[in-house]
Amino acid sequence: MTDIIQSAISSEVYGVWFLIGAALVFWMQAGFAMCEAGFTRAKNSGNILMKNLMDFCIGTVMWFIIGSSLMLGENMLGGFAGKFSFDVFTSYGNFDYSSFVFNLVFCATTATIVSGSMAERTKFSSYCIYSAVISAVIYPIEAHWVWGGGFLAQWGFHDYAGSNCIHMVGGICALIGAYMLGPRIGKFVKDKNGKITKVNAFPGHNLVIAALGVFILWLGWYGFNGAAATDIPTLGSVFLTTTVAPAVATVTCMAFTWIKYGKPDVSMCLNASLAGLVAITAPCDVTDCAGAAVIGFVAGLLVVFGVWFTDNVVHVDDPVGAVAVHMMNGIWGTLAVGLFATETAPGFALAGIQEGLFYGGGFGQMIKQLGGMGITILWTVVTITIAFSIIKATIGLRVTEEEEIKGLDSTEHGLPSAYSGFQIMDVSSSSMTFSENENTFVGAEEYDRASKVQKDAVVPVVKGPDLDTGMYKVTIIAKLGRFDALKDAMNAIGVTGMTVTQVMGCGMQKGAGERYRGVEMDATLLPKVQVDVVIGNIPLDTVIEAAKKALYTGHIGDGKIFVVNVGKVVKVRTGEENMDALLDVEF
Length: 587
Description:
The protein is of the alpha+beta class. The protein is built from 20 helices and 11 strands. The longest helix has 38 residues.
């Protein structure tokens, strides 16, 4: 009797956890929205938020009309798909509500992945159509093969939470979509023969939002991977592996980018966390801590390679790194089952599979993983290519060049800005990119090659013609972070007033070495401070030397000093002119 009661209580508890997990997976939509918005430009933020909202809403409509039947219905065509059913309408009293909702939120995730790779240049109407196709047909059928009792499940293929069925499928759709769509304007530079010679970096406008998105996704992933667990040991093990893999992936990526680029790459490390989560999703229930660590280690390297590969080999513009994160690590996670599955994992017995190659199980499970993955890839490539081709041939996939440059917020949604009340300037469009040509001299490759007067090389002084008035206007352009030091230096030599303006500076200097996601940025619009000082009684050389001493750090971008003669000065309050007007205050 006691066992029956405990079993009933356990069933109820895990039934509640199942729905809590579904809610956590739904909350991941917010994470995807934040990540995609943060990694792209401000002028498209409203469009991205709208797409992530409609992913779920359109997906829900498609799910109750057709998707849930194709995935969860009784096998037809030898386990290819589920039978059509409208039980959600006709037999609602006996309907499995929990399974409907749980599988719905996973379906919406697949469509969301595609959004990031095709961001900033896709027609919203086209996006709605292919999002509906993914949710109605592409995902439900291949998910039925694994989770609906289809032929892959019968064969022994294992994907516990979606490395294959969700992330790899979404990543493949993203790759094909971004390829057919073409790159954003200015992303790739071509020579006169049409050969790509350079990749330009388009930094995301808000890494703070992107980081928030990653943390939201990581939290949601505990529901993503753990919701299907029906006992404490399995749930605890899934939580452990879901924590270890992304942590190791992120540390690995940080170390690798630090060594390769000289500094740890923030955006790449954010992607690495997601890559580790994607890679552990399929084997999270059947591997142990050591296996999760190795899976995470490979994921941390694979995401860097994936970003480089899409940019420099296949030349596909993927603004958020979805191909590297989801497709490549979805493939890796699916194969990892065949390598790291171990009978010591609490979920292994329920999985009903063979141990992995590295745990003495031979190649049996790996062959099943390769076969199931290959069939899924073939299905996805064929169906999404057909969908994109039809859309492209009818209403078109891409917005016009003018619409892309202006931004999709205004052109697609009539939204002046997603940041009303804030002054937003696009710092990464092609109009802000400088190119080196036969008339360009950008100096030596390294600062160490500078001439004997290094300070002059870093903080140059430009003087205008001498009018012999003895009065000068000194304009200093400097980094924001050096303003306090400059102000104190000016005050120390007797300058008691100045005009200060915050400005933006854009230029190109060889050897700057700044990178975004592994791509060197030749030119970036950066905030600067402009300080104007008019002097007459303080020696000009004293002002210049004080300014150079305050600004000098030895790095490119320390600033510039411009000097022009002042023909006349009038103090409005007293009417005094020239030197008399400068006696009480220098400004």
